[in-house]
Amino acid sequence: MRVASIPAGHVYVRHLADEHDEVVRLADPIPSGAPRGAPWWPPAMLDPEWVAEHADEFDLLHLHFGFDAVGPADLGRLVGALREHGKPFAYTVHDLRNPHHDDPGPHDAALDVLVPLADAVITLTEGAAREIRQRWGREAEVIPHPHVVPLELLDRPRPERDARR
Q: pTM for this structure?
């Protein structure tokens, strides 16, 4: 299976893969004008035209996050393009409340499009799955967030620091 994950380079997405599975993830396309240090932003795969141009290269689109700059209507067009090309859409509800936004309205509006239209809904905790069930009547598969540091570093003692990190 070939998966277009947004963003493919994120640790959660990378850790979803089992080294023995048959999943191939497309690399994040580098959009023009991408900021330094975030070569996947803004995600080119969110563009319905990208879906049309690359539909023969992937079997499933998986959105983890990164849609902050895309409005609800454009998200609806993205899912429409996926439907038009026969591509299923899996959505990981990573944030029920986007911590980067003061006003929850735009994120809520995006969720009101993405959660109902997703072919599969994933989330990180049982609590989030309950809220998804209450708000949208959808059942979400819980896949907890994996470690974010390499396994060989997990058992090492953390160095003492004067400043908060």
A: 0.85
